[in-house]
Amino acid sequence: MNAVFAPLERKSRSVLVFEALREKIQAGFWRPGERIYTEAELVTAFNVGRSTVREALNLLKASNLVYTVPGLGTFVSDQSLRVSDPLCLNPENVRDVLQVMEFRVGYEPYCASLAARRVSEGEIATLLSYVKRQENNLSSEKDLAEFAEMDMAFHCLIAQATRNILFAHSFELIREHLLKQQVISASYAERRGKALQYHQQIIQAFTERNPKQAEWVMREHVRETRNAISALLKGDAGQILIKEAI
Questions:
Q1: Statement to judge: residues 72 and 103 lie in one domain
Q2: Looking at the structure, do residues 99 and 39 belong to the same domain, yes or no?
């Protein structure tokens, strides 16, 4: 190993490891598609515990700087593939919102199937924390934004848990539109309750490592959400703006 890392300061060690690795990646020490050091090698290089290294790697994944291939290791993402809204979809346009919902019906069930095989115990715990926060404001009208944000974070983590960079990038493409849909849906208490039930069932399927069940539940979830959004956005799908009366 030829990389030289600066001594760690007295603050969050996982963040410091993340920042040091991010600097190496951005400087080109590892090229896109190249495997970075193993967990064991990073533990030795930084003189930290394995849990610290894993947290740092999760931060890298969340930043789309790396991706993991089970059994092979962690690899540097190709930043040239980052999506910056090339389809010019408008989150305020009803037709575009409904197109995104149609895409989700085909995209997210398979994401859930892959994630059921590959999701880590730590990621399952994070999904549970999102659901817990949704439970806390389930009956409140004051925290709709947080409910919607936790909903989006839930689906985002599932895309990342596929360990497939294309699924993760596809989610980034629809992130803004998904948040719009979640805010619309979260404005109705009944919709919040149904979303929470589906999320709990998905987590159960992940815990049992049941890809078929995860795929089925997710398909039902996004189909019902699509139908509900379509019903809520009554009128001509060609209208310009979604009214902000939510």
A1: no
A2: no
The half-sphere exposure of 162 on its side-chain side, counting CA atoms within 13 A, is 22
> The domain containing residue 53 runs over which residues?
13-81
Q: Are 22 and 60 contacting, i.e. CB atoms less than 8 angstroms apart?
A: yes
What percent of the chain has a predicted confidence (pLDDT) above 70?
A: 77
Q: Residues 65, 106: one domain?
A: no
pTM of the model: 0.59
Tell me the pLDDT tens digit for each residue of 80-137.
Answer: 445 444 455 565 666 777 788 888 998 999 999 999 999 999 999 999 999 998 888 7
Residue 239 lies in a domain: no
Q: What are phi and psi of 85, to 5 degrees?
A: 65, 50
215 and 137 share a domain? yes
Measured CA to CA in angstroms, residue 161 lies from 51, 116, 165 at distances of 18, 8, 10
pLDDT at 18 over 70: yes
DSSP 3-state of 67:
strand
Is position 2 within any domain?
no
Helix or strand run (H / E) with residue 238? none
